[in-house]
Amino acid sequence: MTIKVNVRLLGIFRGFSGKSRIALRLEQPTVGKVIQRLADSLSVEARRLLVDPELDDPRPNALILVNGKEIGVLKGLETQLKEDDEIT
User: Which of 27, 29, 41, 68 could form a disulfide with 81 if both were Cys (CB 3.0 to 4.6 A apart)?
Assistant: First the structure.
C-alpha cells in the first residue's frame, strides 16, 4: 500500500533543499525510509549533515519528529507512518 506523508524541513536542511515542505509517496512507510529518500535527494555534503557516515544513522545530527513527537519515544527509525503524517 502506498501512502503520502508530508516532510517539513527546518534550518540547514531547508537551506540545502530550497524547500520548506516535501510530500513523499512511500510503499514501506517508516521514518527510516523517509530519511533514506531525503538523503538520496540531497547533495553529498547535505547527506553527510543529515546521516552520520560512521553510524549510517541520522539521529546524532537531526531531531526527527512524527506529528510533533520525537521518534525516540516512538519506535525510532522503524516508526510506522500513516497517510498524511508529518515528519519534521
Answer: 29
Phi, psi of 51 (to 5 degrees): -115, 120
Could you list the beta-strand ranges (E) of the chain. Answer: 3-8, 21-26, 65-66, 69-70, 86-87
Predicted TM-score (pTM) of the model is: 0.86
What is each CA distance from 20 to 11, 29, 73, 75, 76, in whole angstroms? 9, 21, 25, 25, 23
pLDDT tens, per residue, the chain with 88 residues: 799 999 999 988 888 788 899 999 999 899 999 988 888 887 787 788 788 878 778 767 789 999 999 999 999 999 999 999 999 9
The type of residue at 61 is N
